[in-house]
Protein 1
Amino acid sequence: MRNEELKLLASHLDRATLEAREVEKLTTNHPQLSLSSAYKIQEIGIQLRQSRGEQTVGYKMGLTSKAKMKQMGVDSPIYGVLTDKMQLFSGQRMTLAGRIHPKIEPEIAFIMSSDLKGKVTAHQALESVGSVCAAMEIIDSRYLKFNFTLNDVIADNCSSSAFILGPLIKKPNEINLANLGMVLEVNGKPVEFGSSSAILGSPAESLAALSQMLHERGHFIPKGSIVMAGAATRAIALNPSTEVRTHVQGLDSVSLVIE
Ligand code: OOG
Ligand code: MG
């Protein structure tokens, strides 16, 4: 795809985000959209956000669990970029204004204490982690009915809308990240149960996979980055007048109040 066309598609998705408007998925009119063009559209979309003053603060992995792949009908992990404007704070009250059809999902996040580059094992990846925490992600696909192919969702920055980190826990090496119970509660009632093992076997594997995927595109994970490892369960629709909380065994909890 030519650069001009990639730019047009990126600004089409950017406008849909700003106007909280659903649009037809790109592959309906561009069935030939490739994985590499999709990541280029994602990158141009991030540049548009940067031109409005947003700063990139990290990455998110997506579709790292069987439950999510099945829910969305796609079959391999993907990554997107996080900006400072997407960050909400645990316990914060928010309205759903400005979002299209938001859903929320339980995650685990890392804060990097050093750069992480190239092909690494999960063990090596953890050596670059300063702290780990319970997290939630709000996803809000810009596509009609949350329906897309893998390349569509990559172009749409992997449906990212917002992320929320719980209290940071130091020394991730002291916790066995591969099997932590995770519960998503709405108004105090558990609605989704999972294990961190659902995230590619362990969130540390997801971090290593991100490093490798970025390396293939000439990028790396800089020191200080926030990395969302991916959801452990299906995502659930966000509704007004609810309190949503995720507990992760050994990692405290993170919450959000929807007005
Ligand atoms: C794509 C984003 C998936 C995750 O954690 O698996 C994702 C989507 O489901 O719309 O963020
Ligand atoms: Mg996610």
Protein 2
Amino acid sequence: MVASGRGSNLKSLLNALEGHPTAQVAVVIGHSAGVGALGIARSHLVPTVVIAESNDLKAWLATLGAFKIDLVVLAGYLKLVPPEVVEAYRGRIINIHPALLPKHGGRGMYGDRVHRAVLDARDTISGATVHLVTEDYDQGSTLGQATVPVLTDDTPESLAKRVLGVEHRLLPQAVLHAAREGHPVPFEFMENGP
Ligand code: GRF
């Protein structure tokens, strides 16, 4: 798992994988030791690695190799993964985005900006997308999406909260499907899944 933020998706993933026979979070990578997700990892006794320079190719490959990583999960990682890492792990890196791609994605579209764009566009439905990671922001093929309604009195904050709730169910489903198939696959989001 790779994260720059508070790590709520990490928490939901750790819960969903508890007791799983094969899938586990082997290491959490962040850009600084203060990243919330790294604190969550430490409290769950999951190893952490700080890669301060996002383009530090040697650090990426050494870390992913040392932990024998099969699947790289980005959740709130704000930098681009080096193209050489994308190439080496092509089809095995996924990201979660807090909107229904291909709308409201791309460089600079993160956090409240995404939800503000949804409200500005007067969309009536938003949600979250899990997609494969390529060399460009939010461009890889979509694997699964979960929707939430946009309410007339929503603010970026209230919409973000509703979307985050569904992210916590969508991302574990993506990972569990990948674990079952041996690699990330397109899947149907199940409301009552993990
Ligand atoms: C989530 O909204 C995710 O979709 C986006 O960044 C946020 C990360 O939240 N890419 P958290 O750190 O998992 O709480």
Protein 3
Amino acid sequence: MSIATVKTEPIHGQKPGTSGLRKKTQVFMQRHYLENFVQAIFDAIGGAAGKTFVVGGDGRYFNDRAVQVILRMAAANGATKAIVGQGGILSTPAASHLIRLNKTDGGIILSASHNPGGPDEDFGIKFNMSNGGPAPESVTARMLEAANSMSEYRIHEGHDIDLSALGTHMVGDMSVEVIDPVADYADLMETLFDFDAIRAAIAGGIRIRFDAMCAVTGPYAVEILENRLGAPRGTVVNRQPLPDFGGLHPDPNPVWAKLLMDEMFGADAPDFGAASDGDGDRNMIVGPNTYVSPSDSLAVIAANAHLAKGYADGLKGVARSMPTSGAVDLVARAKGLDCFETPTGWKFFGNLMDAGRVSLCGEESFGTGSDHVREKDGLWAVLMWLNILAKREEGVADIMAAHFREYGRNYYSRHDFEGLDTAKAEALLSDLKGRMGDMPGLEIDGMTIASADIFKYEDPVDGSVSDNQGYRIVFGDGSRIVMRLSGTGTTGATLRVYLERYVPGPDGLNEDPQVALAPIISAARDLSGMAAHIGRTEPDVIT
Ligand code: G16
């Protein structure tokens, strides 16, 4: 094998964020940029020698080039085997499953998730550990350290391999197994859900619309929903993955999945609608005239998971990220389940799942999943909902109404202020921090502040501490404002403002969330001084 040791220098800004390193594609395409970070990954995990990795990505622009580079670098760093999805394609949950199924030493996943793709859009790379989950902060910190002292990387000098051809290829001394990206994942889903019941419901007339947003889940959804479950051809729209996602913003929320929303809120809507994101780990659930917020979806799944065969024995426990609403907490309390509150980022659920403390996790950011893999999983959530619909023989709106009647309703919304000047956004938060100590007892818009703090998480499994994980202001009735800066953007800063208000019912369960939350929204504006700091009070995106 011919190995080149290439001299390089540290490149500023290779700090992994909420989910790996995300930058503009053009940044990744700069000389040495990708190579430096890949070498930093290998250095951070104690080298690649003798190891096996899964490699694949969501197919966005530059995915194909990056996979070839990673394979040549893995070979030059001594890896013995790589398992790669055909065409270099793997959804994030499928990659997580392959890592676990094949007991590999980890995997490199290429994606900027829900961010748009293309030469002028976003690209990303992250490493998942042997448990299938995103590298924890201790490992990403080592990656940054390695990147900051990078002086050379190793790469095999050879030709590209044909990633369209299934079977075994060689890159230097490393074997590369190119596999069908869908089959193992679809088989796993069949072990978790009652495909017969869902198939019968579909045959009985339940109509489904799944919007793959021209991203990676297209082939997975076609195989599972249409081929295995018998939904009519055309159930899956935007089914062809494209390097620029067809110009769509592959973020399954009411703003970016507008076509689906229009169909679900129009005449003769299907009975069930769903969308997934760039790399297939997010989901949005919609019924006819009924949008299910991700926090509510998590709670409904917690209450009904036992209806699916993989969860028939009940859940071990549940976890949600701190900004996610407390709806799932109410279900956990009623069922006597442990309920954990973690920082934003799926990586924080890994230890809890590995330790057998939780089997269901979710986030307000359209992420839901279980311990079947160590990533959130868009199609898994869709199948869970279909399983629930099939077993309860009820529609989405009826299920939601019954849930709210039983548990009350956590009205919830997230307001995003995008493309902010980073210094101004940081100043807003540090000013807020300075005033938090005086906030308890303060009355605002007729509500009294009970507590104000910055969320700090101590991992109950390994004791590691993550601080500065979001600013929270809690009112006497449990209503909350949470603020934090996004860790996944690539341009300026995005301020996320999370708003929550609990209504026990039986009255007031059917309001527009923006109306129900109006006092909290107004308090958030006043308490943060956002008009003065960032010059605006209207968000770009409301979910
Ligand atoms: C990632 C993380 C999620 C997180 C989301 C938003 O999702 O895996 O845990 O909730 O980003 O993070 P932020 O608020 O920092 O932008 P994905 O789907 O982008 O990988």
Protein 4
Amino acid sequence: MSLTMKDLDTGAPNTWCPGCGNFSILMTVKQAIIQLGLKPSQVVAVSGIGCHGKTTDYLKVNTFHVIHGRVLPAATAIRLANHGLTVLGFAGDGDAFNIGMGHFPHAARRNVDMTYIVHDNLIYGLTTGQVSPTSKQGFVTKTSPRGSPEPGVNPLTQSLTGNATFVARTFAGEPKHMTEVLKRAIQHRGFAVVDVLQPCVTFNRVNTYEFYKQRVYKLEDEGHDEGDFTAAYKRALEWGDRIPIGVFYVEDRPTYEESFPALSGEPLVGQPLRRDLSRLLAEFM
Ligand code: SF4
């Protein structure tokens, strides 16, 4: 029997604010899993701290909720221990580009085969509305009452200069587009980043659904060449009357896993132990 949306629902009560863009991300991740024919037992979702972090409460696959900013190290470890799994990392903009920023360029350049989905609402939602690393310069919040003096982090240019091999952006108000982008990201062999424009309807009154609906355009409608790094970078810098969404850049490069002979066959978890670990294990007994 084929998998349904309900099969991927944990039944946990959802506490996101009505209208939050996180609902759309959760729904489209489920759609992508179903449409790609993945089994829940094959999928691991890792989330960090923030409103996005509850994704792992609501998605019925293998899940791991980590401390702030540590989605990528945990997801990397899971993937290397068992490269038979499909690994999905979920992070908010604060989690990904503030406390977790040190991990980001290294995960990108390593090209571990996983998908990193950033719920990018340009504000801290869970802690009730402070300026975040992706907040735009001049953005007024309770911690930036005169407007943020700093330019925001651009997740796309960071991904490109970090050598990520799949770089995309989509919008929570375009669920069909998001499903297609997520499916491609999951199927990509290597580190795939998907920055999702995710309206926080409670605390971000600037970057709303209406704001994005008036501005987003699709790269695929404009003949964008996904193999052209320079073109991708130029598009990644666009933010104003027009905001591009779609797949910016794709590169075929060996994954980290492929660089290690020990990982070329059976996943590590299925391989026999070649060392006597009894003394080490005894220390933890
Ligand atoms: Fe969504 Fe914002 Fe509410 Fe968090 S605070 S659940 S991001 S609307």
